[in-house]
Input
Amino acid sequence: MTALLQIDRLTASYGSVQALFDLSLTLEEGQVVALMGRNGMGKTTTIRCITRLLPATGGSLRLAGQDVTRLSAPRVAQLGVGLVPEGRRCFAPLTVAENLLVAARPGPWDTARVCALFPRLAERMTQVARTLSGGEQQMLAIGRALMTNPRLLILDEATEGLAPVVRQEIWRGVRQLKADGLSILLVDKSLKEIATVADSAVIVERGATVWTGGIDGLTPELTDRYLGV
Amino acid sequence: MRRDMTINLVIFGLLVATAIGAHLMGEGFTVTLATKAAIFGLAGVGLNLALGYGGLVSFGHAAFFGIGGYVTGIFASHAASGQPILTLPFTLAGSNEMLGIWPMAMVAAGLAALVIGALSLRTTGVYFIMVTLAFAQMLFYFAISWPRYGGEDGLSFYVRNTFPGLNTFDPIQYFAICATLLGLALLFTAVVTQSRFGLALQAARQNSQRTVAVGIRPYGIRLTAFVLSGMIVGLAGALYADLNRFVSPAMLSWHMSGEIMVFVILGGVGRLCGPVAGAAIFILLEHLLGGVSDYWQALLGLLLLAIVLFAPGGLIGIVTGSRRHA
Amino acid sequence: MHEPILELTGLRKSFGALVATDDVSLTLRPGEIHALIGPNGAGKSTLIRQITGEIRPDQGSIRFEGQVIDGLDAAARARLGLARSFQVSSVIPDFTVLQNVMLAVAGASGNAFGLLRPALSDHRLTEPAAFHIEQAGLSGRAGVKAAELAHGERRKLEIAMALALRPRAFLLDEPMAGMGLEGGRQLTAILSDLRTEAPILLVEHDMDAVFALADRISVLVYGRIIATGTVDEIRANPEVRRSYLGEAA
Amino acid sequence: EGVKVGMITTLSGGGAGLGVDTRDGFLLALKQAGDAGAAVELVIEDDQQKPDIAVQIADKMIQSDNVDVLTGIVWSNLAMAVVPAAVAQNRFYLSTNAAPSALAGAGCHPKYFSVSYQNDNLHEAAGAYASEAGIGKIFIMAPNYPAGQDSLAGFKRFFKGEVVNEVYTQVGQTDYAAEIAQIRASGADAVFFFLPGGMGIAFMKQYAESGVGLPLVGPAFSFSQDILPAVGDAALGVKNTAQWSKDLDNAANKAFVEGFQAEYGRLPSLYAAQAYDTANLLLSAMAKADVADADAFAGALNAAEFDSVRGKFRFGPNRHPIQDIYIREVVKEGDVLTNRIIGVAMTDRGDAYADQCQN
Amino acid sequence: MLLAEQALNGLQYGMMLFLMAAGLTLVFGVMGLINLAHGSLYMIGAFACAAVAAATGSFWLGMAASLAAAAAAGAVVEMAVIRRLYARDHLDQVLATFALILFFSEGTRWVFGSFPLYLTLPSALSGAVTLPGGLQYPVFRLVIIAVGAAVALGLWLLITRTRLGIRIRAGEADREMIGALGVDIARLYTIVFALGAALAGLAGALVGSIQSVQVGMGEPVLILAFVVIVIGGIGSVKGALVGALLVGMTDTLGKALLPGLLATVMDPSSANTIGSALASMMIYILMAVILIARPQGLYGARA
Ligand SMILES: Nc1ncnc2c1ncn2[C@@H]1O[C@H](COP(=O)(O)OP(=O)(O)OP(=O)(O)O)[C@@H](O)[C@H]1O
Ligand SMILES: Nc1ncnc2c1ncn2[C@@H]1O[C@H](COP(=O)(O)OP(=O)(O)OP(=O)(O)O)[C@@H](O)[C@H]1O
Ligand SMILES: [Mg+2]
Ligand SMILES: [Mg+2]
Output
């Protein structure tokens, strides 16, 4: 069986500065994989490559067997990749409702279901995103990605700035999504929560994969060495 | 930093060398072209202070250019006719001394910039662009329909104003005057943009919220920059009037504002010598292409387009390979 | 107890029908870290913005070091010594770290109008700036453009700029956000030392940091403060557990 | 020893049509003159309809090209910028079109000749014609700038009836609904207007649509051959004044009109005719005097011994023409709109400023 | 009666201004692009209409040609030039589109010559009708009012009621992000830009029919279109419409009434010149006053 996402020896640069040197990662259909590493090690860069926001300079990216290394960002998204980006990036002048609708594609997730997940958003439907509180924006970014009804959901620090209760809500949601068969690639700083949902983990250090394995294999030595815990 | 300085010196040096070379070869008109480049460069340097460093995209700087020009024209024509400009509230006689006219031109342009700036700075972004345009257009239409100084026909004063010890009618001597003033303006800009004020001005452009949070009010900083900018452009207008011995509402038109802006963008926004390079290249192209075909403006358009598309950061960006420095 | 440095009484701000802060009163005492927690959209950032003067409260009053500052604008309050960091990093992107901090020093000095003296070689600016960069744990990065900093470093730059204002009080809006595990721990240490310099009003969702740092905690829910107390009191408060902490306590 | 001539005219941008006709008319005359024409060394530059550019070109022609004679400027404001400085530097200026009042009276100069007219002439003729045609009440309109103000003043100078309303429009205005409403309400018998270029085209079309239908009178500029096709049938029947028309019956004009059509494949405009006359005037002076002898050359020019396409032609004391001004009507010849002379509005008209000219 | 006619003229002029600005509302207001070449697209529409109408004898074919030519020019410009500038400073757009003006103006003159072209109205649209109340009014001006209103309604629906509108606005806010969500924003932008260009072309053909079709006709339109949009508030169709009507009324009534008003306090001749000078400054005074009082325009949201 081919993996849903298969990254081989990926390299990438910002201008003349190389940020990814040798990154490999495999994510099977229905799996949750955690991408881990210290600040500035290349997690977001990897995600930008997967979503084709940053061109890869070498290596390959395959989505369900199809080579997507040269596709445009919208094409990859249309193949079923949903992104919750670092820093939220809600469309500031659009209302909450418009943000949710803007890229919606048919499927189980619709406005009603997102509102059920985040009741706070339901109250703020006609407010423009610019004036939302930080946490509300984060909820909106997640809802917006869900509305595209992806096969593969990518969460880049999706719980940043959320209240503890909401964060727990999100983790419950993630477990639910996983149970529904959605595949998820996530970056987060909460080891404890990652341990409860992820099947496997990939650790990056200076733009290269330095460890891959089942989540149970993530020993304190490893986290101490690579995450500074 | 050092590299930028070298580029600046090279640009300024090239301009001066062109003029001197042309003078030695008896090409009087090339000297005049270089003078024009120096004057428009000066206007660009003025605008750059507001636009490049301060992020104040003014589409109305022709107002200050024209005011500088009209002050010169009015003084000169009154000097010729011998009648005072004002009798009330005080008597103001005409003059044909550049050294007397320049401060007047700068003060008048500065006052206009103070009023226009104080009102326009309430707005930001495109709204600022349009309010500044609005003020310039008001002056433009005023000048067109105000018969006293020629209306749309403009005002000719036939002979250049005088400068002690120099024959201003000699192209190379007039160039020397303009180039010196340009040099001074460049020096002034360099100093100001490196000062605390320059730091605050550039900070306010990039992140106004943050600037306020460290206790600096952007409004005053911007207004100061706008007024200084207007004064420099006013001086350029005065020089331009003398170059042509003629002023007209065309100096106040939005085309003029646009052209000064084009010099700045073409050369490289926020680069010290960018406007000088931009003005020089623009004038050179205009001159060279003019001989090529009747439809030379289409060629000019294509060339400009090529520069924008392939040289982000303007002409200076081509050399330094970067967009702009802080 | 000491006189409070910062004292809010009855602050109220509404956006249309939404009351973002509703009759909020709160004090910040010398030497303390006062944490402000509460659900998303409770009004924490709105409260900070009222204190800094970015928005005007509809009602209520703010005293800072005994002086009523309601009539002052944001720049004036910053100069009095109210320093803030932003929930989303807000620095001058094209400036280097050093220039960013120098800007703050210049702002605090109340003299941003020096037209002629070169700033970059002005030791009255560079020396304090270098000191605060060091203090915030950014030494060695002074020459790097802010836009090229990693996320965590940019958060530290926010702190360095706040320090450079030589403030009488810090208002920090989610400084831990995006810091990562290691970075978060470093920042916790920095903040812990910082309180001796000036008290901190800390808005934060990272409960590990809050519980480690806070001397007092206030809980804001729907614009109202529903509880104020020590770490243990707040942890034990059933209402707070239900509306905010969940299982985190 | 020929003469070096610098032509500054508008060859790019919206006003290029007038400059192109000016240039072509001038070139045609040189060409038809054969060897004599070849003795004229011509430098042509585009002023872009910008006064500052015109001044700089003039400087260049004087400083670098060392021309003896300047010519070609279409617009009054450009002429005001260039002419005084040029004649002050001892060059001749022969105007192919613009002839502002400031250069006709106290500001006249022995080296400045207007071959076209004095700016007021056609307006004055319109006034004279309107009086003669028995128009009692008239509505008059021009753009709010010096040439427009001169225009209305010129019209009123010879109009004996009542001016019911005098309206100044904006320079460059393209919509005239408001003015047309005023015309409708004014109770006038006719409308006089001076709206050069696109302004006139727009006004005429809108006027025709409005159903007001009062007769129109104006100077030739809005009915010149370059513009008529754009105005369309709306212009039919309008009376306009000009010192030239392509149906003027004289040999010079015949040679000009036919030559122009053969050479350029279109009908000549007023501007072409004026430039043609200018070139011929120049040639006539060259035949009699050396340009190096400025006084003699000026005298030769002043004698104006050339065959004008206007028939008779002579200069007045301020070196502006004394000539007949005709009244023309816009007619259709086959498919082509053009003008036909229907009468003489003024005979041997000089201008109102000549006696102020002391130089 | 005169006043009623002038008010109608003001309304009509406002609608004409709105038509001129409609394309720019999309491109500048919604997409956030400073397109100085808007006037050139307007000119292209007028020239295409005139040329095709002259060749075929049909005004309607000319109309269609104006839409097609301007849309094609717009699409080409977007793909060849504008597309490369989205990530850049707004000022680069200023320079690039300034260059396009030069290119298009001289290019048009090269193709069509220096002389104005002729565009005549079909008989169904020409002449005047008598309105209730006895006012005679040109048919074509009524048509312009109607077309303007239809365009306004259509644009408003497009921008606020369709997914397309939401997407363009999202694209303006964060172009990269909307792409990452699966929306092919590049193609969308080309389409919208072409649509904006087509509207400019339509305005050129309609307005050109009663004005003059000549090189340079687009320049005054450019400034007026920006004025209208900015007064109304960037991004708001309603604002553009209100702005256009306001400018139309101010200009028309200013021209009609100011000289008369001034004549009551000074001699008629100087009242005339001063009055019309003031009238020509009027719309800029209006804009300055509005923006100083409301820095984000009448209906603008963005700061
Ligand atoms: N726009 C950019 N230009 C230049 N360098 C960049 C840019 N964005 C990121 N980098 C650099 O690329 C490297 C990897 O950054 P990336 O954002 O992928 O890290 P990360 O693992 O996501 O870190 P964090 O946990 O802070 O989000 C860092 O060294 C960073 O400085
Ligand atoms: N300008 C505004 N217009 C309308 N509503 C606003 C405005 N600014 C803030 N709000 C609303 O006020 C509420 C309080 O916002 P605030 O940013 O203070 O929340 P917060 O407590 O900081 O939340 P978070 O922890 O998520 O950052 C939110 O619901 C927000 O949507
Ligand atoms: Mg990251
Ligand atoms: Mg907040």
Observations:
- The radius of gyration of chain B is 19 Å.
